[in-house]
Structure formats: structure tokens, C-alpha cells
Amino acid sequence: MIEIDFVGLMEGSLIRVDADHPSMDKYWQSEQWILEPIEKGRKYQCLIKNDDVSFLSRQGASSYNNQSIINNIKKEIPNNSLIDIIVKESLNDLVIYDIIYWDSNEFLQETLFDRRKKLESIQEIDSIKISKTFIKDKYKIYLSLKDSYYGFYFKNLDSEYICGHLSSQWKILK
Predict the structure, then answer these.
(1) What is the pTM of this model?
(2) What is the topology classification, in CATH, of domain 11-173?
(3) What would the mean pLDDT of 96-121 be, rounded to a whole number?
(4) What is the dihedral sign for C-alpha 146, 148, 150, 153?
């Protein structure tokens, strides 16, 4: 059996031009890049192991303790899983946006396309949501949503999860 533990969070690099700059065309027009809204909240990895749930942020181990969400995680997510989440500002909801391990199966070497397929097969419940992604009409969607989110990821569907590094395959537009 694989020993599952926290890994470094994968991060995107910041885009330093305006959304309508010509260099942005490859992200808006290519179906190789998805658009993923970034929820307002705190980013964590969530480890479910030995019927225990623990959280790790960029700053280290976290004492996040919303028992309702922890109970829902225990109920809905199998042991030996490691997921990337954002706990929304309300602290009553979380959004899963990537899978690293699921039920002892490793997804580190899988492409984002395959990780998203697994992610989208997970049943949402009231307090646990799956991140939304868009392939078509990204610019129009961005314009309609930009005031409702912290920012947006552009993620390359061929990208693998790179632990603890800035990735050129994930870009952040704020």
C-alpha cells in the first residue's frame, strides 16, 4: 500500500498583462487551456487518512476545525486521499479543485485532463463542491464573472501535478 502524505502545493505563475492584451489570445482561444475561477477563501491540501482529516496551507499545518465540513469530508471522500481545496470565505463550504491521491490511487503523473475526469465523477453535496472549468467562450465568461471571484486560473490540460513549484502550465489572472 502506498504511504500517502502531504506534498507541496502546485502554484500557478501570475500573468502580468491585462486580460485583453494580444498575448492573452492563446489562453482565450485554445481549447488546450481551461479557465477555472478561483474562489475567495483559503487554499489547503486536505489529507484523509486513518479516518482522520488534516489540512495543510502554504504556511504549514492548519487547525481548521469546522466540524460539519470535516464530517462531510469523512463521509464523502475515501480514506487515503489527498486533495487540493479552497475553503470559501464563509468557512461553511469548500471547493475541490485537484486530486493528488484518491482511495490510495496516485494521480501525480496523470494529466490535468485525467485528474479532471476523476474530479468531475465525484458527487457534490451541500458543503463540498467541485471547481467549475470552462473551455469555450472563456473571455465572455471571464467578463461576466470577474467581479465575483478572487481571480482565474488558466490550466493546460496536459499538465501534470508538480509538487511545491510554480508551474508554467498554470497561469493566474487577477
Answers:
(1) 0.91
(2) D-amino Acid Aminotransferase; Chain A, domain 1 (3.30.470)
(3) 95
(4) negative
